[in-house]
Structures are given as C-alpha cells and as structure tokens.
Amino acid sequence: MTEMTTRRKLRKVRLGTVVANKMDKCIVVRVDRTIKHPRYKKTIRTSSKLYAHDEKNEANAGDLVRVMETRPLSKIKHWRLVEIMERAK
Asked: In this structure, is residue 4 part of a structural domain?
C-alpha cells in the first residue's frame, strides 16, 4: 500500500458547552454557530447537539469542552471528549 492510502483522514474538532452529563460515560454538547440567511442576509444563531464519549465522567454541565470526531461508539455517539477548556462557575 502507498503512504496515501494508509494515512488517516483529518478529524473534525468542535468547541461547545456541556448541556447534560446524566448518562454513564456520555455527555451532550451544544455547539453554537452563526450563519448568514441566504436571502435576507441576517445573521442567525443555530446550535446542534452532539453526544460525546467521556471515559472518566469528568465533564459537568456548563463546562466549555473540545470534542473530536471518532468512529461510531453507539447508535448516536460519534464524538469523544478531548479536553475541558473551562469549568462552569
């Protein structure tokens, strides 16, 4: 095999806020982003929820975290916790 086919693709990294941590080894992260409306050109805030794997159950609700895309870990869990950027106050 050539080096190009064995190289792993770049993984997506997102920054978001932990919304829930009630599940075992799983957190729900809300990722906010702003987009411009195609017709009216108004800036709109949208958000999406990502389910991320938290191996040590260390993230709490309100924390600012960085998550990275990974292989499917369950039906809805395709992200994993990389680091906690800022703890909730």
From this structure: no
